[in-house]
Amino acid sequence: MVVTGVERRSATLVSADAAGYSRLMAADELATIEAIKGFRDAGEQIAAEHGGRLVDAPGDNLLFEFETAGPALEAALRFQA
Which of 3, 27, 36, 53, by CA, is between 20 and 30 Å from 19? Predict the structure, then answer.
């Protein structure tokens, strides 16, 4: 295989993690799973409103990609609120 070029682009990544996930899972697994689903849905909505997208969601972590830092920061502040 011959590689003729590599496409490069800049991106800003935001990682959001649920605090106390293991403790919450031990206390009430079903409620925690439902809460994480809500966390993911809200995160996807916030990211989309700021031009971002969800690229991975392992466990309680969400990884978002944005084209530039400004919208990523705005979305991260909304995630925290």
Answer: 53
